[in-house]
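Entry 12.
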Amino acid sequence: MPRKLDPRDTFDTLEEEVMFTIAMLQADEDAADLVPEAEGWMGGIDATRGSDRLFRQEAVSIDAGRISANQRLDIAVVGFADALLIDCGKDRQSTRWRSFFPQVPSLFIKQPLAEETAAVRSWLEASADPILNQHRDAMEKRADNASIALSATRNLSIKRATNLQQREGLAQQLTAARDALHGTLVKRAQERKLPRDWPVAFFRVEVTKASKAASSTPPEPPPG
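Predicted 3D structure (tokens):
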């Protein structure tokens, strides 16, 4: 029987499996009429590869959007902190300063983006500090962008699961189609008096390290 295909197999691996089977069918006069059946498998690979590429591009875009939003929010926070510190007479122990930054700004911006965004929103909702008001528009814009990026990141998990299901479906469909072709070849081998191992030759055989070692180990001499 041909090997069961794995959803973790690359698309190139799946294509090579199909290409090999097509080439073997084309090369054998007792199987050449089955070429169209195997050629049809490529359509499923192409469609799933296309969907996977779109998903990966979206995932990269969302990741980049979150990184950029985080960076821009950090810049806005540091800009506010610099202006606030000057207005506080550079007194980092003042109540006004510590109401925003109980820890140094460099640590504040290192916290997870969701927590940083929530903290900035709490400032904007609860404080009427004059320096904050000068930076309010920029801070609101960056906090909004961060919230959008975080939401997109959370929604990506659903799309990732869908993408995985598509790859699993492709592997299952190809495995079933290969098994069916193998069954046809087995029946043909019986009808045309061909060797028992003839059908399996149309499918690539995965060579494992164990099988390589076994094939390279010389047989033990007979006792005595």
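Annotation: The chain has one domain: 11-209. Residues 186 and 224 are 43 Å apart (CA to CA).
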